[in-house]
Amino acid sequence: MSKGLRVALIASVAVVLLGLIGGGVFMYLQLERIATATPAAATPAEGVGGDTAAALIFYKPAHFVTELADPAPKVRYVDVTVQLGFAAQKDADDAKNLDPIIRNTILQILRARTAQELSGAEGMLKLEKDLQEALVKQLRTLRKVSVTDLVIQ
What we know:
Elements lengths: L2 H34 L8 E2 L8 E5 L4 E4 L9 E10 L2 H9 L1 H13 L3 H4 L1 H16 L6 E11 L1
Antiparallel strand pairs: 1-2, 2-4, 3-4, 4-5
């Protein structure tokens, strides 16, 4: 076997392996994205922060990445995960049907904030309160809004 043929064979095998690895990573990320968009109904939990003694059923919309309202030229982004707590499984299931409205409401509130407004514990608590006030209009049985991840870039 000539040296050129060997190099071509090795390069071909490397390209195929990289394609397989890349396809596997793509499928894994897609499945993870789909899994995070389903209700977390199997995870009843005690009310966060002692707000309620009753167990809550949480629905977790897919996480949000959006631009903040910081003035140009500095563009800032926020990556947020929110969970919505309900007293009954049926209410969490109903929230899934309203997912586009929920996502729209959350994105509108996030895009109106600056990085400074979201910073610190006070910023996160105010965000939870504002989300609760806005979302309870669509989800009357909503008991708790929890921001479980918040990253500002």
